[in-house]
Write a structure and sequence with these properties.
Homeodomain-like_sf; about 75% helix; mainly alpha; about 200 residues
């Protein structure tokens, strides 16, 4: 029986290490790409030994997958969940645009939007990491399409594409030039797509 607390302690430490390293990996992915994640770099940024990281994750692909999972958790908490209290349709779409803009302004990730950065990096790839990146993007687009459908859009997929394109452009502009001009334009232009379905 005395071994149980020690085992629980090891598990808790392993979980804490996993969360710390996964978040650091997600941060790195927005500035250097998922391919820029290295065990040495993570060790330097987190203070966790290389052997400690590999004990928890096993290999670099597992770390990359954990980075995507952590970014998904953050995206849900920061962008999506705040909008769910709004009515489905145009109100929720507006709330999503507001929370997405706030997510970038708050610099939740050092390199801007994780979804945008990794979608470009893994666009032509296959494998578990590419699938995870693709699924993350698909979830976002599905959410937008569903809300546009509720709003009465005759082509929810096209409207979701327009909104996503504006937001991706706003993110790229902000990261390249370090100003919020592109972000403000993206919010206004994406809002214009939503505005077409607002009840008068």
């Amino acid at each position: 029986m005395s071994a149980l607390p020690a085992a629980d302690g090891r598990r808790a430490r392993g979980d804490a290490t996993r969360r710390l390293v996964a978040r650091a990996a997600a941060d790195i992915a927005t500035t250097h790409g998922l391919d820029g994640i290295t065990v040495g770099g993570l060790s330097a940024s987190t203070g966790v030994s290389k052997s400690g990281i590999l004990t928890v994750f096993g290999n670099r692909e597992a770390i990359q997958l954990a980075a995507v999972a952590e970014a998904r958790r953050v995206y849900i908490d920061v962008v999506i969940r705040p909008a769910l209290s709004s009515q489905p349709g145009t109100a929720r779409l507006d709330a999503l645009l507001d929370s997405w803009s706030a997510y970038l302004r708050a610099e939740v990730f050092p390199g801007g939007c994780f979804v945008t950065a990794t979608s470009v990096e893994f666009g032509h790839r296959t494998g578990p990491v590419a699938d995870a990146v693709r699924n993350l993007k698909r979830e976002w687009l599905d959410l937008l399409e569903n809300e546009f459908s509720v709003a009465g859009s005759p082509d929810p997929a096209e409207d979701a594409f327009r909104v996503d394109a504006y937001l991706c452009a706003g993110n790229s502009r902000r990261e390249l030039f370090g100003t919020d001009d592109g972000l403000e334009w993206a919010r206004a232009l994406a809002g214009g797509v939503v505005q077409r379905y607002r009840q008068v």
